Amino acid sequence: MARRSILTTLKAEHDALRELFARIDETTDRAEKTRAELLMKIEQNLIPHAKWEESVFYPAFRERADRDGRKTYAEAMLEHAAVEKTVLPAVKAAATASEEFAGRAKVFGELIDHHAREEETTMFRMARELFSAEELADFDEAYAAWKESPAAAMALGMEGAKSGLRAVAAKVGGP
């Protein structure tokens, strides 16, 4: 039986995030609790995914990539940083029962969709050339193990705390 590729897993996680963003986009301002729950699910899915990419997959990709691949790596890393340091805290700073939250969540979803599409079309194509099927399957197994580890739980907790602090700073400092 063929082993699963990390690219298949990452694509499935992208699709799950797209579904969560579609659900949050369908909510009304009265769905305060639903919005909060969906945002929490988005974070729980996004943070481990992003942290593993940043610490394992992206560096391995960059190490083997040519100039175009290294440019793709740089784009992906900056998109991750923009979401982590600016977009997610801005969404969390908005009251979930507000139009502001709806607008910010929509932009958040659009950025994630853009990033995922670029990753799936450009980076994944390059990765299929840079890594063997066995290496891509090894990445998948390592990722599955990492997601169950205390390190993943700690990454989620730390990023949640950091984005929460940035959200508080955004509330205090204004939009």
Descriptive report:
This protein is mainly α and 175 residues long. It has one domain. The chain contains 6 helices and no strands. Helix 1 (6-25) packs antiparallel against helix 2 (32-64). The longest helix has 33 residues, at 32-64. The radius of gyration is 17 Å and the shape is elongated.
Instruction: Note the beta-strand portion.
Output: under 5%
Order of helices and strands: HHHHHH
Q: What radius of gyration results from the CA coordinates? A: 17 Å
Please outline the major beta sheet.
Answer: none
Summing up helix and strand content along with how strands pair, one would put the structural category as mainly alpha
Q: Roughly what is the average pLDDT, rounded to an integer?
A: 91
Percent helix = over 70%
Low-confidence spans = none
- Helix count, DSSP H or I runs of 4 or more residues: 6
